Amino acid sequence: MTNYRFFLLTVFLMLGCIYTSFGQSQSIEAIKHIVAKIDTDGTLTVKEFDNEKIYNQTFDGGGRIVIGYNQNELKKVKEEIGTSFGRVTTIIYLNNGTPVKIIEREENFKWKEDDSGWDYSELHQVFQADYFIFNWEMDEMKIIKTGQPNLSDRTCAVYEHAPLIERALELMKK
Question: What's the pLDDT tens digit per position in 72-86?
């Protein structure tokens, strides 16, 4: 009888894992579809702002915030910050006012072979984290990482992006 219960428990756990994985993959596809629609929406109003003026701070390589919205609904926020070693980028996609995908990316300049410094002529992507957000309030998500960040700490909880979203909502009014 104990073996029978163990067998049933194992089967239910396996089915639960399969169902959860299948549900997440369907949700990821739905999120990808939303993101594609936002990226190809020619009706979005797009505004660009200088980060140094927004933050009242100087960055080594400058920076910008680009927002895309329809009427009063924010759809996309892209923040790029230039650093001495490259660039860090955050992109947030929103659906009905709620973030559904966040991309964090680090790009680095190549170090010169003669060790004299950075080669500023070309950026190379070294890291990207794609956050597929199933429930913003409950912090439920799937993170897909590519590469390793070299000089930045680019992964954080999704709620840490709330100030950037709030700033973008303020910028929409300008």
Answer: 899 999 999 998 889
Considering the entire predicted model, what is its pTM? 0.82
Phi, psi of 88 (to 5 degrees): -115, 135
How many other CB atoms sit within 10 Å of the CB of residue 4? 8
Number of domains forming the structure of the chain: 1
Alpha carbons 63 and 113: distance in angstroms, whole number: 28
**27 in a structural domain:** no
> What amino acid occupies position 99?
P
Measured distance CA(10)–CA(63) in Å, rounded: 52
Is residue 12 in some structural domain? Answer: no
Residues 6+ apart with CB under 8 A from 5: none
Q: Which domain holds residue 95?
A: 36-172
Asked if residue 6 is part of any domain, the answer here is no
Q: How far is CA 140 from the centre of its chain?
A: 14
Residue 149 has pLDDT above 70, yes or no: yes
